[in-house]
Amino acid sequence: MGLLSDPSRRKVLTGLLTRLNTPICIVCYLAGIVWFMGLAFEPFTLRTYMSENAMGSTMVEERFSSGERALSLAKEFDAHKRKAGGMPVEWLVKAMQSRGLEVFTQSFSRKLPFPDENKERYMVRGTNVYGILRAPRAPRTEALVITAPCSPGNTNNQAVALLLALAQYFRNQIYWAKDIIFLVNEHDLIGTQAWLEGYHHTNITGMEYSPLQGRAGSIQAALSLELSSDVITSLDLVLEGLNGQLPNLDLANLFYAFCQKLGVLCTIQGKLQRNDWDTAEGYTHAAQTMMLMVLKQACGRSWGDHGLFLRYHIEAASVRGINSFRHYKTDATTIGRLLEGMVRKLNNLLERLHQSYFFYLLPSLSRFVSIGYYMPAFGLLAVILLLRVSFPGLCHCFSVSLQPSSPGVLTVLTPVVISHLTGVALYLLPVHLQEMAVEHFPVSETEAVVLTAIAIYTAGLALPHNTQRLLSGEGTEQGWKVLKLTALLYLAVLLGCTALINFSLGFILAVTLVPITASITPHMPKALYALVMVLLSPAFTILYCVFIYQELIEAPVSVSEGWMLFLSVISQGILDHALYGSLVYPLLALFIYPCWLMFWNILFWN
Amino acid sequence: HTHLNYKLGLTLQNRTSEALTPAAAARDEFQEELVIRPLHSGDIYASFQFRTLWDTDFLQEGQKVSHYRLFPKSLGQVLSKFSVRELHISFTQGFWRTMQWGQPFIPSPPGAELWVWFHDTVSDVDGNWKELTNVLSGIFCASLNFIDLTNTVQPSASFKPLGLGNATDHRFLRYATLPREIVCTENLTPWKKLLPCGSKAGLAVLLKSEKLFHSSFHSQAVHIRPVCQDEQCTSKAWELRQTLNVVFDLYTAGQGKKEWSLFKMFSRTLTEACPLATSSKVYVDITDNPELSPATPLLSQAVVLGDRRTYSVFDLTRAETFGQLRSLNLLLRWKGDGEMLRPLLHAERYVAGFGLQTGEIHTVIYNNHPYRAFPVLLMDSVPWYLQLYIHTLTVTSKSRDNKPSYIHYQPAKDRHRPHLLEMLIQLPPHSMTEVTVQFERALLKWTEYTPDPNHGFYVGSSVVSALVPSMVAMNTNFTQDQPLFSSFVPVKEESSYFVRVYTEPLLVNLPTPDFSMPYNVICLTCTVVAVGYGSFYNLLTRTFQVDEPSLPLAKRLANLIRRIRGVPLLT
């Protein structure tokens, strides 16, 4: 610290930082991006390994053999599903009871805030059926959950049937130390949410459900199974959960270990692993896989039934069977064995999964990037905001603004308050004004909500940029500096907190927001900068993410399709918030958007 | 010595030769009994009871006991040394599924449970209790030494003495559970050694650990209490009851047919009674008409837990029981389609909420009686690290507030004693009563965590005790030839019977620091960031002035002199 305490050298350093502020910021920004892209490069990543001793060293021999029976069961289930026109509750109860489980049902109902056009539902009413396999000589304190959603149409019959076949096989074994709950849930995530809320006797989303009759203590881990064909070519592992939460990495390791052992092709983000990391294609492949994970995590929704378990501190993942045109096929018996192996190893757990990482990115199933490696990428972007805060031109006015007599505080307060009020309007009005909008315009409820949101968002652009005049007349030079100082600190705190919880979201927002916010002043060519600012605003970020995501999953869309997708993403975001408590929509509406508006305000300061 | 015992046993059986032996010895007695009950679920319930009566009264002043016959010396010494009036200890692996299996003959919570009434002459009860648990820990090869003041309570009403005497001062009662205790062969062996015949003869030959622990439920217990020797209660005796309950599972046992035999259950058959036993009987519950072979003409009826049951009785002291093959292998086969008698009282418990800060304990008690309300005593002992908010305690029945008529609450002291909550609640007929209380999870000191902190911490079962109205008249007259399983809890009135129901224990996660490397890394990086950023920020925001370089010592001295002289200073 000699450098910092020596006044003359400090002066040099200060001078250097002041003089080279802009170049340093540019270098930091580029370094952040490069660091992030470098994360997918294999030599920079770590190989995954099993940290949990209880799952690593124990041997498990898989003996499940009734895959064929499961497939015929799937046909039977399908027939009953058609007959019942939905979930065949009675048949499932009987099927589980005859396999020696304690069976319970839970009915639930939920009125969505507005109709979900993707899944075509508004008033949802359903029943969950679950059977508990009581472990011998266990005191009902710990449990594992295996779930299979009962989906409409032809999908997922095999998953439910495999679940029943596994239940039958598991029931005859003596080695269980934890109770196993077999859950068949209706209406996918809504059913899971109802069941989880019932199990933990909470009500956070306004769901109506009947109380659960049977419980099995604290749930240690959960697996969700999605399977729609008799044979599959590969199994896909889905990890991203609500609010970007991820299960412990050991769960992914466990899945990967058993895929290796049984010779099942396994993918993550639907992408197979490649061995040619030293070629450009190999790197691009890994980068695409990682980018997909980042995009999925950033959007904060649950990408499978497992995602809702994570809130309750239950490690969970979804296993999805993919049937494509490859020649190599895996039958139901092998999938059953894979699940048997995983459940038996989870059964061996002495503690909750906690040994391995909770914060990671996966460029492939066998490689991971831990928090220590990816955080610097974000840090390099965030430090730009701090460098701009400490930019002498700004920090002098900081001391000025603290004097109570100065008009600075008031001039700043008005735009801050007005920006946030716009944010509150963006958060509250779309859902609450839908009826009025439907009355006056020829649109459906869903369209009404989304279009209201976009309208308020756009109106916000016009509203606040003259607000400081309301109180103090002419905007002063000092005024915008104080405002920029406040806004920069605010953004730094916001992004920092977001990145700690959901790195992907924080990083994506930082990439788009930092360059413009760091450079904005009122003395720039207004029209050009206004255009750039709008193009880098949160809404456009979502739009770009939609296009990039479609590109990455190899389903590119045209501009108009992309626009439709963008609209549905917004409606899904609002629905996710209302139904499952996803926090991305309130974060964007209540904090990020107002913060961006404050910078918008600076541009039009006069 | 065993030879002598054997001889004594023979004399016991043969009362005509009583004159040859000392009178006191003749009154020691040993009975053994096995009850087999086929369950509706297809499982089968086997309950062993061994009862040793010891005709002595060492609690009287000056009486010294040095001679032991049938009663195990290890326990006898413990009783006299610690002035124990009554002792109940149970080790259970698994949870009794009341709704599928009905009520057990003698209930017990998962893990270990110990409750002891001390004699009212004891001055240092806590000291005696501490020593006693350590001694018992050695006798039963169990972790009872983990019982200390932090998990011991003194229930005021739930645990009354079951034997003679009307002790009501709960200062002499200690109750503790260890929900985490795992029961295994090493606990079974010392338990078997307490039997007069060991596991060499009689019913105890069936107790093979490889089968007993291949089951859904296993519970073994020891109950010691003073009882009357005869109906007039002219003399007292000590009664030692050793019970072992086991439920075998239909599915894990093989083909899933409701077909059981002694051999299939225990991989042994019976060939003789314990020679020291005055009575040795096998009861098979045939109320639901299972096919039983060999058939026996001996039938017995008993009213147990409010239900009149019919039993086939096999008397092992009679040679004809064993038939031609000289071995008894009972075969049972049943359909089990009929309705099970719904247990009138049933309770369960769970933790509600999520996150590691707060939570809520829900205890749900069901009264399945169609038209009778009855009161129950609920006892909850919660460790101190769940800090109960007792003001949030609610009791609701049929969505209406149900005010308990008696509440005894003793708050916890951090690191010293647990919470104790006892309530007398009236259960309306055919109702579900929910008792909820919120708690906050304490942050422990880092040395207080167990080696596996992420497993969670256990909260023992709550205990619901009740006099349940009986559908049939209970048998109140006390006779010697009553089967053991129906005579454990004394029945005082015909209209009701005593039931104790245990809920499941809870596993609660406390906020746990990450004890491994990442924790250090975070601390380290935070420090670096704090120091680095702090000085960086300081550097950039402060305005600097160049300090005048300080003068050399000689010049300063010169200045000092110049100041005194009043001439201009050097610079």
Automatic annotation (TrEMBL), chain A:
Component of the glycosylphosphatidylinositol-anchor (GPI-anchor) transamidase (GPI-T) complex that catalyzes the formation of the linkage between a proprotein and a GPI-anchor and participates in GPI anchored protein biosynthesis. Binds GPI-anchor. PANTHER family: GLYCOSYLPHOSPHATIDYLINOSITOL ANCHOR ATTACHMENT 1 PROTEIN. The chain crosses the membrane at residues 20-41, 371-389, 409-429, 449-467, 487-516, 528-550, 587-605. It holds the Pfam family Gaa1. Heteropentamer. Part of the GPI-anchor transamidase complex, consisting of PIGK, PIGT, PIGS, PIGU and GAA1. Interacts with PIGK. SUPFAM superfamilies: Zn-dependent exopeptidases (SSF53187). Gene3D superfamilies: Zn peptidases. Keywords: Disulfide bond, Endoplasmic reticulum, Glycoprotein, GPI-anchor biosynthesis, Membrane, Transmembrane, Transmembrane helix. GO terms for biological process: attachment of GPI anchor to protein; GPI anchor biosynthetic process. GO terms for cellular component: GPI-anchor transamidase complex. This is GPI-anchor transamidase component GPAA1. It is a multi-pass membrane protein. Pathway: Glycolipid biosynthesis; glycosylphosphatidylinositol-anchor biosynthesis. It is found in: Endoplasmic reticulum membrane. The keyword Glycoprotein applies.
UniProtKB/TrEMBL annotation, chain B:
It comes from the Eukaryota. One of its GO terms (cellular component) is GPI-anchor transamidase complex. Coiled coil: none annotated. One of its GO terms (biological process) is attachment of GPI anchor to protein. Pfam families: Gpi16 (PF04113). InterPro entries: PIG-T. PANTHER family: GPI TRANSAMIDASE COMPONENT PIG-T, GPI TRANSAMIDASE COMPONENT PIG-T-RELATED. This is GPI transamidase component PIG-T-like. It comes from Cyprinus carpio (Common carp). The lineage of its organism: Eukaryota, Metazoa, Chordata, Craniata, Vertebrata.
